[in-house]
Specification:
The complex is a heterodimer of chains A (100) and B (272). Chain A is 61% helix and 14% strand. Classes of the chains: A alpha+beta (100), B alpha/beta (272).
Chain lengths: 100, 272
């Protein structure tokens, strides 16, 4: 479930790995380790859901900034729809079991 | 592991997985940038370089290396082993299982019986009670020794390679390659008796690896090794583990604990 969350948290901004890790953490999904985050970014970029651009960092090594592409936006809508359907089914099942 | 070594290992693994130079360079800079902001070590944020490289290579669509199945039967089973020396109990009812791809670290104070347990698994010592089953060959590296002080490293490689059907040339080239992975130029080294403790340990590890055992048994392999060599040894063990090899390593160095797949503590002659 990390990939759709990454798409959602990139949103309309331009962001880079470490900042995104912070957003995931703020959203209560963290801490997401670099070891999970970067493979997710690489996968999303390969599928054309994210585009990237290298910029000079603040006195450090360059930073790779990611933005959502149009394909990424429609993928995010599709994943959100699938998740909502799944979550509502699971919720109704759990309700039955919790309150028989 | 220092981050430089970690990054080198990552690059090596990505290369082996068929990831392009551009993607490798990019992975390196992104990782460095992340570490600079996040603080802490690469190992802490990204895990072992071998594992991270395989996830990243999958994501990037590179070739991933074939792995032996992890669900295979245990390669070492120690069941209820006890051992006394002159009526002094050294091991009391110790049990332990090692599967392919496991690196088990034995920890505990000196005299707790770590070396004895390794000698028993290696078949060099007999348990008073209990049972030990070993599948496949083992490569045992004692705490000290295991090398001939009068022979050069290349001669060790030839000697250990011969029963495996390696020509002298093959044995030397494979031995030198393994030594390079430990950051050591074995081809230029003098006779083993003139090597420092840490380097002699590397020689012993390489000769054990030459035999291509299923399980490596390393007794305090860190002794005398500097920090970089220790990290390289771990990088080698991870690569070994990825290929389905297993290892039992005794160590009282606490940093070994975060790197092992299983940690077994031996204390006061019982296993916890």
């Amino acid at each position: 479930m990390l990939d759709p969350c990454v798409l959602a948290l990139v949103g309309d901004d331009e962001t880079y790995g470490y900042e995104l890790a912070g957003r995931l953490g703020d959203a209560g999904l963290g801490p997401v380790k670099g070891g999970s985050l970067y493979p997710s970014l690489a996968r999303l970029e390969k599928h054309g859901f994210l585009a990237s651009q290298w910029r000079a960092g603040d006195g450090g090594p360059g930073r790779k900034y990611y933005t959502l592409t149009d394909r990424g936006r429609s993928e995010l809508r599709e994943q959100s729809r699938i998740w909502a359907a799944f979550a509502s089914r699971v919720s109704s099942v759990l309700d039955v079991e919790v309150h028989p | 592991m220092n981050d430089e070594t970690w990054l080198d290992c990552l690059d090596h693994e990505l290369h082996a997985a068929g990831v392009s130079p551009e993607n490798r360079a990019s992975a390196r800079v992104e990782t460095e940038g992340f570490l600079q902001e996040a603080g802490g070590s690469a190992l802490e944020h990204f895990g072992p370089p071998t594992t991270y490289a395989s996830h990243l290579a999958d994501a990037l669509g590179g070739r991933s290396r074939p792995q032996r199945p992890r669900t295979a039967a245990p390669v070492v089973s120690v069941d209820g082993v006890s051992k006394s020396y002159r009526s002094r109990p050294v091991l009391n009812d110790v049990s332990l299982t090692v599967s392919p791809g496991d690196v088990v670290v034995l920890t505990g104070p000196n005299g707790a019986g770590k070396s004895t347990l390794l000698r028993i698994i290696a078949g060099l010592d007999r348990a008073d009670r209990g049972q030990v089953t070993v599948e496949g060959a083992v490569g045992y590296v004692p705490q000290r020794g295991g090398v001939d002080p009068h022979l050069r490293p290349g001669e060790h490689f030839e000697l250990f390679g011969a029963p495996l059907g390696l020509t002298r040339r093959q044995a030397r080239s494979e031995g030198n390659r393994l030594a390079r992975e430990l950051g050591w130029d074995a081809a230029a080294a003098p006779v083993a008796g003139a090597l420092s403790g840490g380097t002699a340990q590397k020689l012993a590890v390489v000769t054990a690896l030459l035999r291509q055992p299923q399980t490596l048994l390393l007794d305090e392999p860190y002794q005398g090794m500097d920090a970089d060599s220790q990290q390289r040894l771990w990088a080698l063990l991870w690569a070994w583990q990825e290929g389905g090899g297993s290892a039992v390593v005794s160590s009282h160095a606490s940093d070994a604990l975060s790197k092992a797949s299983t940690v077994v503590e031996i204390e006061g002659s019982t296993l916890r």
